[in-house]
Design a protein that fits this description.
single chain; 6 helices; alpha/beta; about 40% helix; about 110 residues
Length: about 110
């Protein structure tokens, strides 16, 4: 499963919600933590208002915390992100997802700088 930008976030969420359905997921420049970025707050204000401050860790990151795989093997996730992307620090927030994934033994994370 793969996606780009908000589709990258979607591929991460779908994979993390259904870990035994997929062997791997690839996200290209994903909006990794939309609840904490201006784009996400602007596009989905009513969703984030319902989630409230407790949900600020982000949707994909929250699924990382609950990930359980029946197969016992780690879930392979590849994030392809350019380090010079002008949206990286304020909008995409890729490092937030990477940090959360490193804390989960059920994830084998690859990070490629494009």
């Amino acid at each position: 499963l793969s996606g780009h930008s908000m589709g990258g976030h979607g591929s991460l969420v779908i994979t993390l919600k259904n870990p035994d359905m997929f062997r791997c997921s690839t996200a290209f420049a994903p909006i990794s933590n939309p609840i904490n970025g201006p784009w996400g707050l602007k596009l989905f204000p009513t969703t984030w208002a319902r989630i409230g401050p407790a949900g600020r860790i982000g949707i994909a990151r929250s699924w990382l915390k609950t990930l359980k795989r029946d197969s016992g093997s780690p879930l392979n996730i590849l994030v392809c992100q350019g380090s010079v992307d002008k949206f990286l620090e304020k909008e995409l927030l890729t490092q937030n997802f990477v940090d959360a994934a490193k804390d989960n033994a059920g994830i084998k994370l690859g990070l490629i700088d494009l």
